[in-house]
Amino acid sequence: MCELFALSSLHPATVRLSFEEFSRHGGLAGPHKDGWGIAFYDGRDVRLLREPEPASESACARLIRDQSPASTTVLSHIRKATRGAPGLSNCQPFGRELAGRMHVFAHNGNLDPRALQARFRLGSYRPIGETDSEHAFCALLERMRPLWFDARGVPELADRIRIVADFAASLRPLGPANFLYADGDAVFVHGHKRTHADGVHPPGLHVLERSCPAARARFEAAGLAIESIHDRQEVVLAASVPLTANEPWQPLAEGELIAVQRGRIVARMAPGPADIDANPFAGGRTRRHRNQAK
Q1: Is 274 strand, coil or helix?
Q2: Is residue 291 part of a domain?
Q3: 212 is catalytic
Q4: Is the residue at 292 inside a domain?
Q5: What DSSP assignment string belongs to 215-270?
Q6: Looking at residue 209, which CATH number applies to its domain?
Q7: Please, what's the largest Cα pairwise distance for the chain?
Q8: For 256-282, what is each residue's pLDDT tens digit?
Q9: Torsion of Cα atoms, 126 then 127 then 130 then 134, to 10°
């Protein structure tokens, strides 16, 4: 399966990623041969780089490894092809414009294509490639489109996360459905299940919250270096597998969805109507699930 990575930070940070080393850490055989991609947000727009070639042979990948733009939101995907042939149109993350801003999506899993097409009819948004992931992204944007066009500016986060949660619940019966979705204001991280050494099961994603009061805060892991020059930095990282062994990475429960803004987890939703708080927000701070200790 593929590998996902995301960063959300209070202040812009540089993310230097060695895709070959990173994929090895995630349990994939390197050099990874089916493609890679990374998106750096800059306001409403993104710098989106994707290639179908092995990252070990890519000049662009070396540029990301050695020098990257600073950003408060970064999404990355390393591809192991399951649906769709190797090629640029099938490389993630995928990006589309909606309501005057770029929306970005990356998926880790393998969805049943016939069931996906039957359940998610498409309208204004159509896939360019052949992957189940891009079809799912187009379906999500179809659901988001009325909300964004009816709103003045950015829609309420509570409305957006409910749409994403409903979409994720419809996606999970079709196969592993770990995904990252960003709209330029928030990053939505949905954990499901993925291939482990002993089979396919949760967790599908892990998250780490960090607060760095010291100047030039730095994070280093296998194939990854993150650096900020600001006096105070808050960061949330999401990855398919924990990137370090000595920090409190949190595995997402099966079907759990979190929303992240400016380096802080601001909402959590559990799967199923009985487990979803009618108001998952608590003054901008993380709200726990009902079945967690309070």
Answers
A1: helix
A2: no
A3: no
A4: no
A5: SS-EEEETTEEEE--SSSEEEEEEESS-S-SSS--EEPPTT-EEEEETTEEEEEE-
A6: 3.60.20.10
A7: 52
A8: 999 999 999 999 998 864 443 334 443
A9: -120
DSSP state of 284: T
Q: What are the residues whose beta carbons fall under 8 Å from the beta carbon of 67, sequence distance 6 or more?
A: 14, 16
What Cα–Cα distance (Å) separates residue 47 from each residue in 2, 25, 82, 178?
21, 25, 26, 23
- pTM across the whole model: 0.89
Over the stretch 8-24, which tens digit does the pLDDT of each residue have? 999 999 999 888 777 77
Contact 224, 240 (CB under 8 A): no
Instruction: Determine phi and psi for 77, rounding to 5 degrees.
Output: -145, 135
Name the nearest CA neighbour of 78 among 13, 131, 20. Answer: 20
Number of compact structural domains in the chain: 1
The residue from 2, 91, 138, 212 that is catalytic is 2
The residue to which tokens 């801003």 are assigned: 101
The model's pLDDT over 149-207, given as tens digits with 9 standing for 90+, comes to: 999 899 999 999 999 999 999 999 999 999 999 999 999 999 999 988 899 999 999 99
Residue with tokens 């994603």: 205
Q: Is 87:20 a contact under the CB 8 Å cutoff?
A: no
Q: Tokens 């595995």 — which residue?
A: 251
- Tell whether 21 is covered by a domain: yes
- Sign, CA torsion 7/12/16/19: positive
